Automatic annotation (TrEMBL), chains A, B, C, D:
Pathway: Purine metabolism; ppGpp biosynthesis; ppGpp from GTP: step 1/2
EC number(s) given by UniProt: 2.7.6.5
Any GO MF annotation of the entry: GTP binding
Summary of subunit composition and partner proteins: Homotetramer.
Family: Belongs to the RelA/SpoT family.
Organism field: Guptibacillus hwajinpoensis
Protein name per Swiss-Prot or TrEMBL: GTP diphosphokinase
GO biological process: guanosine tetraphosphate biosynthetic process
Statement: the UniProt record of this protein carries the keyword Kinase: yes
SUPFAM superfamilies: Nucleotidyltransferase
Enzyme superclass (EC): transferase
Highest taxon of the lineage: Bacteria
InterPro entries to which the protein is assigned, alphabetical: GTP_Pyrophosphokinase (IPR052366), NT_sf (IPR043519), RelA_SpoT (IPR007685)
Amino acid sequence: MSKNWEEFLAPYKQAVNELKVKLKGIREQFEKADDHTPVEFVTGRVKPIPSILDKAKRKQIAMNRLQEEMHDIAGVRVMCQFVEDINKVIHHLRGRKDFDIVEERDYVTNQKESGYRSYHVVVQYPVQTIMGEQMLLVEIQIRTLAMNFWATIEHSLNYKYNKNIPEEVQKRLQRAAIAASKLDDEMSEIRVEIKEAQKVFMQKKENEKKKAEN
Amino acid sequence: MSKNWEEFLAPYKQAVNELKVKLKGIREQFEKADDHTPVEFVTGRVKPIPSILDKAKRKQIAMNRLQEEMHDIAGVRVMCQFVEDINKVIHHLRGRKDFDIVEERDYVTNQKESGYRSYHVVVQYPVQTIMGEQMLLVEIQIRTLAMNFWATIEHSLNYKYNKNIPEEVQKRLQRAAIAASKLDDEMSEIRVEIKEAQKVFMQKKENEKKKAEN
Amino acid sequence: MSKNWEEFLAPYKQAVNELKVKLKGIREQFEKADDHTPVEFVTGRVKPIPSILDKAKRKQIAMNRLQEEMHDIAGVRVMCQFVEDINKVIHHLRGRKDFDIVEERDYVTNQKESGYRSYHVVVQYPVQTIMGEQMLLVEIQIRTLAMNFWATIEHSLNYKYNKNIPEEVQKRLQRAAIAASKLDDEMSEIRVEIKEAQKVFMQKKENEKKKAEN
Amino acid sequence: MSKNWEEFLAPYKQAVNELKVKLKGIREQFEKADDHTPVEFVTGRVKPIPSILDKAKRKQIAMNRLQEEMHDIAGVRVMCQFVEDINKVIHHLRGRKDFDIVEERDYVTNQKESGYRSYHVVVQYPVQTIMGEQMLLVEIQIRTLAMNFWATIEHSLNYKYNKNIPEEVQKRLQRAAIAASKLDDEMSEIRVEIKEAQKVFMQKKENEKKKAEN
């Protein structure tokens, strides 16, 4: 059985690796264009087997329908500095021709009750394996650093309390969500300042590099 | 001259690489001990040549005294999830035998006027080169993720305005510093909750890994 | 001008990074299938600007025709343990749907006079950039470790002597080519032995891992 | 029990990671000094648990004496282009102050009967852990690429046949060892040529880089 899982998950792992390289590349392209990059960093993971089993049970997905019905077995996360960058990333994703978008969920505009904020894009991505091409679902989550910080903590707490976080802790979490959101707002306000600053910074660095090399 | 710099900076680059591997190792050791790790991630850099020249001029350091008098040519940064983790990292650094601490500056307790918070430890670190051993100064900065986020932005703005940030922008920066600090406080309050949650999380993951492999 | 090159080469760098991840993935898939992997390791590079200029001059390619006419600006190299593995890699490349093969050159069967052996596949690969999709030529070279060792050295000597290697040195190079080829032949003879050995090895490792974890 | 092993091996893993970064650094230092580098690449591994158990049994080492008596639990391998480079690496290792050499074995001059060639240096290396300093034995193996290629194959075959390789296969292995050795000899003969070529190559690259950037 263990062997079976490894074979099933191998192309998902490959998809995650490829999409990480592809989306990290976007970051460099923006930097080279001397522009503020909407991509701060990119991470990815394949869902752990126990979480797949849990979710399949909860959502009543048959084991032989996982590939078609569970859309976050492969997950890629794009972290942004500013809330405004999230839209730029989505715009880029919509223009790519190496996958098809099958679903979008906007939890930035429509924050979850828990305080969760994030933008989800589910894509259908073709992986070339040694057995031929496979079409896989991959979930791409786009968030600010503050949204991500908060979400990581909520994830841990959900785990601890088996999705039944006590009211007391929930309230604390909501206060933290407000603090995270407040930080995002303050950041947006100095965004224009920062964007210009970073552009100047990049050019200076470039000029100094040239000077130093002569 | 360019050639000269490359040779001068090579052992600093080596020191940064070695200390990054060493401090990242700490993270893994805590994780394996099923304990909350005080080290979230570690970055490092060698100061760019133009910044070395700038600082030498500003601080009146002679070119042949850089190795002895400029303590941040090599810099390593340790990011923590909680303010409380900063002390744990400092405690570990003080116990290490692979370098000597020559200075500590606590800008966490004594925040700078600008809003800057961070703990700085300057160490004397021996690097083995193809020409023999060299003793180098390395600055290790320890901060929370929120402190780091803020500091990165202040750095860009300082660059843009050549260390003369306009009052208007300074005020905005201070508001952002307060928001960052607020987020750190909220995080500290749910820290005990989170620490326990993460421990449980790690054990579950471990157990599920074993189950899945059988 | 420098800026121009950086923009021109950025998508090539991206193509190399993506293809490296894709072809390294093949290696893991074979390993997971408990099979001998034809891919030992994968490297890649973007041709240095001076080499592009040299070649453009030599082959009379206009600067605005580089993208269409120079097929090795992006290069990926696949190293194999055995001569027989080269065919397996070619077979896999022909089946992939993420690029089109536009040319194949077999310098394994038809060794160059110099002693050079390698299999070249030129593909047309689509890269998604922040400005849209770009079609790029990429040269994939497939070789054994011994072929690669020899080729690296010939490359250095060609550089030194500006493509006019003295007869004396050429003779030595040819003797080295014979020694490299002899090593490949001996390897092929024990190949079946080794292939079986590696398979057994992998299974043992797997079993011992499981035992150790219980 | 599994948990125990993880804790026991963690500092060995750390030692391997640190020494890999340290010895890879040597490579870069030689390259920056525009000199032929004796270090082609560096790998490392912690001995798998089943192999530790096997060896402990074979050599009658008690489980509580592993740290003192088994000297290859942590292993680092340095690959060289030429046989002559091996001595340069040894010379460098003897001069380092971050570990003490406790043993050297020269299987290059005194090839094993099987055909095995390699130079082994056992060092005592201090690792700083979260529990304090630990002194560990690490085995550093220095070999040419051809020696390494052969050794990898012998290792697989030994595994398959449980250290009882049939005579027929042994003969084939010895023929391959002779071919590998022959390749090393041919390489040594063109070494002076190549060394000069590589030096010229590096300088040209450097010059062209500068030209391209202006």
